[in-house]
Amino acid sequence: MYKVAKLIISSYSKKEKISADDIDNLFSMLYKNGQILNNWIIEKYNDRFEARVTTTDEDSLDSKYFNKYITNQIKKFKVGIEIIADDALASDSCHCKEHSYYIISVFPNDMTSPIICGDCGREIPLIRIPYLFNEEEHYSILTFQSIYNSVDNLWMNSLSDRFSKRQIIDPKSQLNIRGLEIREELEKKTQRPVYLLISNPIGGYFEFKKNNKNLDSCPNCGGDFKFLKNGFVDKVCDKCRMAFITHEEK
Ligand SMILES: [Zn+2]
Ligand SMILES: [Zn+2]
């Protein structure tokens, strides 16, 4: 369950002044490391700063998860951390010990992890996902999520139908090619199958019939789907490592 945490940040001595930018930088680093969500608030008081952040679990702000950037930055101040409540709007995340496969799926406008456990269908907090490429943070995954959300917003608001629709539904679009590079790297690091969810059909209520035609073969290779029961997705192409969700046709 996602939690709300309160952080109290003060200087080691009265002479030292803390800059709010330094604190903001620390939170950017914690966000890129998957330890908090992108929604912090920093409050200024005479002798200290206080901040509210959303974090993924009871222990997800522990120093054992820090990368070298955070370890250096946090040395600049005295920091007290307290978990104060559950995040009332958040759903629970995955607690499976192992995952037989993973799905990369960006929920439009969602700020939490886009990596889904194939077994329970819940998201896996990024602190439990290995770093990709040569990063020491989750920069690639979070950037992909942010770009995906931007394209999806364009589509939902119909500002650029053809471009944004193609980016989302076509396995060969630049957006999905980036998703597939991340997929391949995550599969290498986890040694488990990782599928990219291709949102085809695209869903939504806009031109419902046209946009909700379900596929009967893989749009990338033309091969047969493997059908899954009770999963987060219901069909995959094992060869292309793409996953799909069948939409109810009206
Ligand atoms: Zn799970
Ligand atoms: Zn295929």
In short:
The protein is of the alpha+beta class and 250 residues long. 27% of the residues lie in helices and 18% in strands.
Mean pLDDT: 92
Q: Biggest β-sheet: count, sense, barrel?
A: 6 strands, mixed
- Can you give the helix content as a percent range? 25-40%
Count up the helices. 6
Show unreliable segments. none
Let me know the number of strands.
Answer: 10
Element string (H = helix, E = strand): EHEEHEEEHHHEHEEE
What binds here, in terms of ligands, is:
zinc ion
Shape category: elongated
Output the strand order for the largest sheet: 6-5-7-10-9-8
Beta-strand content bin: 15-25%
**What is the SS-derived class?**
alpha+beta
- In angstroms, what separates the terminal alpha carbons? 35 Å
Task: Evaluate the radius of gyration.
Answer: 20 Å
Supply the number of structural domains: 2
What are the main properties of this structure?
binds zinc ion, 250 residues, six-stranded mixed β-sheet, 10 strands, single chain, Alpha-Beta Plaits, 2 domains, alpha+beta
Q: How are the secondary structure elements laid out?
A:
Elements: E1 3-10, H1 20-32, E2 41-44, E3 49-55, H2 68-74, E4 78-86, E5 102-104, E6 115-117, H3 139-156, H4 161-169, H5 174-190, E7 194-197, H6 208-211, E8 226-227, E9 235-237, E10 242-244
Parallel strand pairs: 5-7, 7-10
Antiparallel strand pairs: 1-3, 1-4, 2-3, 5-6, 8-9, 9-10
Helix pairs in contact: 1-2, 3-4, 3-5
The chain binds zinc ion (2 copies).
